[in-house]
Automatic annotation (TrEMBL), chains A, B:
<feature type="domain" description="HTH marR-type">
    <location>
        <begin position="22"/>
        <end position="80"/>
    </location>
</feature>
<dbReference type="InterPro" id="IPR036390">
    <property type="entry name" value="WH_DNA-bd_sf"/>
</dbReference>
<dbReference type="GO" id="GO:0003677">
    <property type="term" value="F:DNA binding"/>
</dbReference>
<dbReference type="InterPro" id="IPR052362">
    <property type="entry name" value="HTH-GbsR_regulator"/>
</dbReference>
<dbReference type="GO" id="GO:0003700">
    <property type="term" value="F:DNA-binding transcription factor activity"/>
</dbReference>
<comment type="similarity">
    <text>Belongs to the GbsR family.</text>
</comment>
<dbReference type="Pfam" id="PF12802">
    <property type="entry name" value="MarR_2"/>
</dbReference>
<dbReference type="InterPro" id="IPR000835">
    <property type="entry name" value="HTH_MarR-typ"/>
</dbReference>
<dbReference type="InterPro" id="IPR036388">
    <property type="entry name" value="WH-like_DNA-bd_sf"/>
</dbReference>
<protein>
    <recommendedName>
        <fullName>HTH-type transcriptional regulator</fullName>
    </recommendedName>
</protein>
<keyword id="KW-0804">Transcription</keyword>
<dbReference type="InterPro" id="IPR026282">
    <property type="entry name" value="MJ1563"/>
</dbReference>
<keyword id="KW-0238">DNA-binding</keyword>
<dbReference type="InterPro" id="IPR011991">
    <property type="entry name" value="ArsR-like_HTH"/>
</dbReference>
<keyword id="KW-0805">Transcription regulation</keyword>
Length: 190, 190
DNA sequence: CAGTTATTTCAGTAATTACTGAAATTACGA
DNA sequence: TCGTAATTTCAGTAATTACTGAAATAACTG
């Protein structure tokens, strides 16, 4: 591997983290390299930079494409494939969230749904189904929220993030106003 | 493996998903089993239920404990260890988020910080640092938000989730009120 | 079309990770 | 203290995953 020291640290770190993130070392390294490099790179440049086999680069790029984490570019008068990552880190975040959901959450959601359709044949199964229903309920809530939030334009999403838990204060305020209005017109029965 | 069919489906699914979630098959299966079983189980019961070796169970329980996903219980007049999962799925979610952040995000954050401290020695390094700064900024924003939100009590968190993107409407309303107030007193210069 | 370059595929091998059984350790109870 | 039950450790092996090099395929060019 022959890279500027700062780049190398970054690339090696992504390689090490790869396994924790559900990708492998090479995939992590290639992603990191593309991310910090200003111009798109072709496969041979990656081979050169990371000191790995051509076939490994080919397979890893395919993997990164499956994750939608990489863009294929073509330069004029050059028939080689060049690759980069999207510039916008928010877009990267969205892609990452979408793909992880698809791989890590959706399959479980559908298995849970399937099991919950069945008739329990014992107390054990009845109890198990109850627990699965709780899990299913939580996951559904989370994914509904996610589907909702992912539609926001980036600057609104950023606002939402910055606001964080402060939103609840806003909610409290709203509650007060609402209950105030209600108490004027028709006070709570409880 | 000798389990009621519904339980078995669930357990096998968690086993299969294990690798995608960064845990292994056995750990996933044990977790699933404990999650749906009403009473705490001891190691031998797990061996029995899943048909795996005693030592594997021991190691996997240790792993689950490292994740804080499992509770150790003791029954009176029985010196064996019994295990369950917490009842509250929201609590489980919090633990999961915390542990994944610790393992998957924090190390990268600290590597980024370290690299960003260094003096770039070339244009390539300068550009790479800019990209890393973008990534660092985004991750910091996300973790700040997370630190903020995780402090909320569960019902507030649930409200926030249910509200989802609708919050932005509330924000728009607030913006209007604020800008209205401002325009009365001292209109924008821009 | 033949020759050249770029990319992919895939069988074999290397590296890593998961699991087992036997032995060691720990924690009691008589 | 000795014996027994519970748990852990760990060396060896099995299973899985990652990677390579050679061969095949695809995409162009003259």
């Amino acid at each position: 591997m022959n890279l500027p020291p700062l780049v190398q640290s970054f690339v090696l770190h992504f390689g090490e983290m790869g396994s924790r993130w559900g990708i492998n070392r090479t995939v992590g390294q290639i992603y990191a390299l593309l991310y910090v490099t200003p111009e798109p790179l072709n496969a041979d440049q990656i081979v050169e930079s990371l000191g790995i086999s051509r076939s490994n680069v080919s397979m890893s790029l395919r993997e990164l494409q499956a994750w939608n984490l990489v863009l294929l570019k073509h330069l004029p008068d050059d028939r080689r494939d060049f690759f980069t990552t999207p510039d916008d880190v928010w877009q990267i975040l969205r892609t990452l969230a979408e793909e992880r959901k698809k791989r890590e959450v959706d399959p479980t959601l559908s298995v849970l749904r399937e099991i919950l359709m069945q008739q329990p044949a014992s107390d054990a199964e009845r109890h198990a189904q109850e627990r699965m229903a709780e899990m299913h309920g939580l996951i559904e809530r989370l994914t509904t929220w996610y589907d909702d939030v992912k539609k926001l334009e980036t600057d609104r999403l950023a606002t939402l993030l910055t606001l964080g838990a402060k939103v609840t204060r806003l909610l409290e305020a709203k509650d007060k106003i609402v209950s105030l209005g209600r108490s004027k017109r028709s006070p709570d029965k409880a």
